[in-house]
Specification:
The protein is mainly alpha-helical and 246 residues long. The chain has ten helices and six strands. It has a three-stranded parallel beta sheet with strand order 1-2-3, with helices on both faces. Strands 4-5-6 form a three-stranded mixed beta sheet. The radius of gyration is 20 Å and the shape is elongated.
C-alpha cells in the first residue's frame, strides 16, 4: 500500500516490528504518496520517538494512536482510541479513526503522550487482575464461597473491571480465555517500568506486578492467556479457585 495510500495504519508493538513492516522493500517508508503513518500499537515513548524521527526525515507525519478495549470491542468497532500528535494531523486522521473506534480521546499535541496514557491504562488493568485473583485465592483458602466473595466485592469499594468481568467470566469457569496473551502483559509491565524510570516516578505496586508477570512467563505461561496469572498465585498458595461457572 506504500504507493497507493496517503494515510497508513499499523498496529506495531516495537521498533523492530516497525523496521520489519514499514522499512521492508515495499514498506511505507519508501512510498511516494504516503503523508501520514498512524500507529495503533503500544511500543513506548522511546520507540514511537524513533519511528517519528525516521519517518519525519522522509517527510511523513507520525500520529500516535494506541487502542484499548479488548478483542471483542475491536470486532464490534467500539474500541477506544487514545490519540496524540499535532492537532492538524489529528484533524486529518480523525474521520478514519472514527471508522473503527467508538471513542477517541485526544490527549495532547506530542507524539508519545498517547503511549504513556495507554501504558498507565494497561498497568492498572493488569494490577486490578492480579489483586482480584489474590483476593479470590485468599478467600478460597479460607473456605469462603468465592461467588459470595465476589458478590460482596462488586457491591462494595473493591469493585473493579477484574472483579466485574475478567475473573467471573474467564477464571471462575477455569477456561482462562480472556484473549490477551501473557507475553503481551509482560511487554506492558516492562514498558511501565521503562517509563517510570525515565520520568523518575515511584513504582512500588508496578514493580511487584512486574515480578508476578515475569514469574508467570518463567513458569511457562507466556504463550497462555493473561488470566493464567491465577494458576501462578494458586500454585504459590497451595490452593485452587473452585470452578463455579460453566
Amino acid at each position: 500500500v506504500a504507493n497507493e495510500a496517503e494515510t497508513v495504519f499499523a498496529c506495531l508493538p516495537s521498533v523492530e516490528s516497525f523496521h520489519t513492516v514499514a522499512g521492508a522493500d515495499d514498506g511505507v517508508i519508501h512510498g511516494t504518496a504516503i503523508k501520514t503513518f498512524v500507529n495503533l500499537g503500544t511500543m513506548g515513548t522511546d520507540a514511537i520517538g524513533e519511528v517519528e524521527r525516521i519517518l519525519g526525515a522522509n517527510g511523513i507525519d507520525v500520529f500516535d494512536c494506541p487502542i484499548t478495549g479488548g478483542t471483542q470491542r475491536a470486532w464490534d468497532k467500539t474500541i477506544t482510541a487514545i490519540a496524540s500528535g499535532p492537532q492538524e494531523v489529528f484533524e486529518r486522521v480523525r474521520p478514519l479513526i472514527k471508522a473503527f473506534a467508538g471513542e477517541i480521546h485526544y490527549i495532547g499535541d506530542k507524539v508519545g503522550q498517547a503511549q504513556v496514557t495507554k501504558i498507565v491504562n494497561n498497568m492498572m488493568s493488569i494490577t486490578n487482575l492480579a489483586s482480584c485473583i489474590e483476593g479470590v485465592v485468599l478467600g478460597a483458602k479460607a473456605g469462603i464461597d468465592v461467588e459470595k466473595l465476589l458478590a460482596v466485592i462488586n457491591s462494595g469499594s473493591g469493585q473493579n473491571s477484574a472483579s466485574l468481568t475478567k475473573v467471573p467470566r474467564h477464571v471462575m469457569n477455569r477456561k482462562f480465555d480472556l484473549g490477551g496473551p501473557m507475553y503481551i502483559s509482560q511487554k506492558d509491565v516492562t514498558l511501565w517500568r521503562s517509563e517510570a524510570e525515565r520520568l523518575g516516578v515511584t513504582q512500588w505496586v508496578g514493580n511487584t506486578v512486574h515480578h508476578l508477570v515475569m514469574q508467570a512467563c518463567a513458569m511457562g505461561y507466556g504463550p497462555g492467556d493473561m488470566t493464567e496469572i491465577a494458576k501462578v498465585v494458586e500454585q504459590m498458595s497451595d490452593v485452587e479457585i473452585p470452578k463455579t461457572r460453566n
